[in-house]
């Protein structure tokens, strides 16, 4: 069973390019050759050999190998006990990072997963996705994420480099969550639950990299958003307060003055005066340019 899929325009971060299952004949081989995408093979039974960059790996059931794009590889089924394997090809901007989280790199391309048959089940579900029409591409992407999540969860302990990468991802997730939900009554605990980390650990990690606590980052973000709204004369101070997640206008005024050095009312007066001055200055400049061009002699 083999199926090739068209290039995905909807899921640029991760998408399936092909998948299949093959019961190889004795000695069946492929390569040496290169691929234009990632190609993950998982051995269901039998055994064989995988060669890449001068290294040879003898593999059996519960193991597999990952082919990286543009890397020459060769693999061959055993002559007496040929392997049956399933595979999935994929690509996308998130692919390399997910594979690193699973401990799969060019220097370490071998998969060890013998706890259950989930990888095979996900391949089977990919095959069954043919019955979907409008949502098939999304379903395939979801199944690919699930498959890779198994390798990440039960893969080797992450290297320091990968741990650093994960920390950066968690920080970005905090910032993204705040950006999308700051108008709501969110707490640091809500953020930690969303990301799936212990609150204390997440706070420590965030402060280490951002030099500010999550709580203070949230407060600064809300107040800065409030400042952006101050120029809108149709919004009252109470409207702005509610729009940035403060249902209590007094608390909003207190936090605003603490960060900006003046009350929301005074800050707004200064902003509106500045807007008025800028408008008048622009009008004067336009009038002066008009007079200048009016007095310029015409050329024949």
UniProtKB/TrEMBL annotation:
<keyword id="KW-0805">Transcription regulation</keyword>
<dbReference type="InterPro" id="IPR018062">
    <property type="entry name" value="HTH_AraC-typ_CS"/>
</dbReference>
<dbReference type="Pfam" id="PF12833">
    <property type="entry name" value="HTH_18"/>
</dbReference>
<feature type="domain" description="HTH araC/xylS-type">
    <location>
        <begin position="172"/>
        <end position="270"/>
    </location>
</feature>
<protein>
    <submittedName>
        <fullName>Arabinose operon regulatory protein</fullName>
    </submittedName>
</protein>
<dbReference type="InterPro" id="IPR018060">
    <property type="entry name" value="HTH_AraC"/>
</dbReference>
<dbReference type="InterPro" id="IPR003313">
    <property type="entry name" value="AraC-bd"/>
</dbReference>
<keyword id="KW-0238">DNA-binding</keyword>
<dbReference type="InterPro" id="IPR009057">
    <property type="entry name" value="Homeodomain-like_sf"/>
</dbReference>
<keyword id="KW-0804">Transcription</keyword>
<dbReference type="InterPro" id="IPR037923">
    <property type="entry name" value="HTH-like"/>
</dbReference>
<dbReference type="Pfam" id="PF02311">
    <property type="entry name" value="AraC_binding"/>
</dbReference>
<dbReference type="InterPro" id="IPR020449">
    <property type="entry name" value="Tscrpt_reg_AraC-type_HTH"/>
</dbReference>
